[in-house]
Design brief:
Rossmann fold, about 15% strand, eight-stranded mixed β-sheet, N-(1-d-carboxylethyl)-l-norvaline Dehydrogenase, domain 2, 15 helices, alpha/beta
């Protein structure tokens, strides 16, 4: 069996190396012919993952048909904005029994569609899944011990992914809560922006602890309203990924928040970052959906007002600290135990 990684960013490249070191011919597909040529000439992805040689079994290519022709497992690791296009093209070219895994942490704004739901439009449900977790690409490439979660409705899919990805430094856990795992991976990017802003403002560790735990509460609150299991958020895809992304300067979303706190406009911060931060588009989609559902998400709402509605940061902070106060752990006794916020004194 061969494997295809669609998307030549830092995460796709890091995953390609793991798969190749397990003995699988691994096609690393990219749109940019110049990037492919550079990878072939220098033996590494100098644009996104410099300093990490590509395994000899990694085959950079722009030929999607060739990459998919013999691949039994395909990882789609492209930005959420192009995910549907690539999924549709993959469905036309891949064999009917191919396992297709989303490795993209984002939400399609039109209709609030998760990446697995996009895949469902093109592939049988029993052949798809999603990969998520505290997976900073640079640390994976450096060989740091890392865990991830593959979620699918079919055990055969999770077993296939575990077969190709497991390594002495990369553990792959299984889950049946596909939507919960995906929501955790997408939503945490919003709160990484919040925590990056907190770092830029040089707040104390008490503040960071409060932000991360209240972020987890907001994430699980929305996820449960969409049918996910709140306990998924206690695992690697939930609190594990949230903790890493909210505290690491390697996170693009954290870096974006830090720049915003330094006084840069959103446009200037994005330009200075030079990379896509999925949390920006995710925030827009989540704000609309939570408003429609009536889900209480004060951190996400406050960030939206600051980034897109012209609210002053200081005023947003004051409103967050003097707003409603609810129970601490909302699902400790089941969803029925969720209390409505009460006015702060």
């Amino acid at each position: 069996m061969e494997v295809a990684i669609l998307g030549g960013g830092n995460f796709g490249t890091a995953i390609a190396n793991i798969v190749a070191r397990n003995g699988f011919v691994t096609h690393l597909w990219m749109r940019d012919a110049r990037q492919v040529a550079d990878c072939l000439e220098f033996g590494e992805n100098r644009r996104y993952l410099p300093g990490h040689p590509l395994d000899p079994l990694v085959r950079p290519t722009t030929d999607l048909a060739d990459a998919l022709a013999r691949s039994g497992v395909v990882f789609v690791s492209v930005p959420s904005g192009s995910f549907r296009e690539i999924s549709a093209r993959t469905a036309e070219l891949a064999s009917p029994d191919t396992v297709v895994i989303s490795a993209t942490k984002g939400i399609e704004s039109d209709g609030f569609r998760l990446m697995s739901q996009v895949l469902e439009d093109y592939f049988p449900r029993e052949r798809i899944g999603a990969l998520s977790g505290p997976n900073l690409a640079e640390e994976i490439a450096d060989g740091h011990y890392t865990g991830t979660v593959v979620a699918s409705w079919a055990g055969a899919v999770t077993e296939s992914v575990q077969q190709v990805l497991r390594s002495p430094t990369f553990r792959v856990y299984a889950s049946a809560d596909v939507y919960g795992v995906e929501l955790a991976g997408a939503l945490k990017n919003i709160y990484a922006i919040v925590c990056g802003m907190a770092a830029g403002l040089a707040v104390g560790q008490n503040t960071v602890g409060m932000l991360i735990t209240r972020s987890l509460a907001e994430m699980s609150r929305l996820a449960v309203s969409l049918g996910a299991n709140p306990f998924t958020f206690l695992g690697l895809a939930g609190v594990g990924d949230l903790l890493v992304t909210c505290t690491s300067p390697l996170s693009r979303n954290y870096q974006l928040g830090y720049r915003l706190a330094q006084g840069l406009s959103l446009e200037a911060a994005i330009e200075d970052l030079g990379k896509l931060a999925e949390g920006v588009n995710t925030l827009r989609a989540v704000h609309r959906r939570s408003s429609e559902l009536g889900v209480y998400m004060p951190l996400a709402s406050g960030l939206h007002r600051f980034m897109f509605e012209g609210a002053e940061l200081g005023q947003v902070i004051v409103e967050l600290m003097t707003g409603g106060q609810a129970v601490d752990v909302e699902f400790a006794h089941g969803p029925a135990a969720v209390a409505a916020p009460v006015e702060a004194n």
